[in-house]
Design brief:
Helices cover about 65% and strands about 0% of the residues. It contains twelve helices and two strands, in the order αββααααααααααα. A hairpin with a 5-residue loop joins strand 1 (about 25) and strand 2 (about 35). The longest helix has about 45 residues, at about 45-90. The termini are far apart. The model is unreliable at about 230-235 (pLDDT under 50).
């Protein structure tokens, strides 16, 4: 009988974009491929603009979420300070009671470092300097706690303090820049604070925005400080 030869067909090679991307990528040991992103010269004309808009939105929303948590913490600190102030005025609480309160709070919330006797006294001073909760909520709570402490320590005149709050939020000053502006008496050169100051976010690329993402008081408050320390140590 004549021998019949079988012709083996060579599989067609894909030349579409997905195949080309896969060929440029890397392959996992289990056979899964990870395509490489195309070069910038292969992208649509409006890609860079869209990328910039998405990045800006991500930065703004991250900052908004963190500032919302910060405002909740600042309002909590103000409320604790108000309660301490009230007990001191009506029940004669002294330094020893504050020490006991600090110890009990730290026992109940060991992961939070914001309940030292010194910080509780700052909360008291905060409530004393700002008796109106509405003003705290609308303006002061936009600042990190470290900024508020610096203002309480170094600016005693209420109008001047309000000017520095507004300027720090508008320009996104870090705590050290705020201190420099206070030392230079910037409020005396620039004039009065703005009435009805709009509740705006500090610039997303500002020093304040960078600082608030690393605020130890805020991370302790949220219960994420340990994870942050582990991550930082790992880096």
């Amino acid at each position: 009988m004549p021998t019949v030869k079988k012709t083996l067909k060579t599989p067609a090679v894909r030349t579409d974009g997905a195949s080309m991307r896969a060929s440029r990528g890397r392959t996992h040991p289990d056979g899964v491929s990870f395509p490489v992103a195309p070069g910038r010269s292969e992208l649509p004309r409006g890609y860079a603009k869209t990328l910039g808009e998405i990045k800006q939105r991500i930065q703004q929303e991250r900052l908004r979420v963190v500032l919302t948590a910060n405002a909740a913490m600042v309002l909590l600190y103000w409320d604790i300070g108000r309660m301490i102030l009230d007990r001191q005025e009506h029940e004669g609480w002294g330094a020893r009671v504050i020490d006991r309160l600090a110890a009990d709070l730290r026992e109940a919330f060991p992961e939070m470092k914001g309940f030292s006797p010194r910080n509780l006294l700052f909360m008291r001073s905060f409530a004393e300097a700002y008796p109106d909760a509405k003003n705290v909520k609308q303006l002061v709570s936009q600042l990190p706690w470290g900024h508020i402490i610096r203002l309480l320590q170094r600016v005693k005149e209420p109008n001047a303090r309000e000017w520095y709050i507004q300027a720090a939020i508008k320009h996104g000053w870090s705590r050290s820049i705020l201190a420099m502006q206070i030392d230079a008496r910037a409020h005396a050169r620039q004039g009065k604070a703005i009435t009805n100051f709009p509740a705006t976010l500090p610039p997303a690329d500002s020093d304040m925005a960078a600082q608030i993402f690393k605020d130890p008081y805020l991370f302790d408050f949220l219960g994420t400080a340990a994870n942050l320390r582990d991550l930082t140590h790992g880096l």
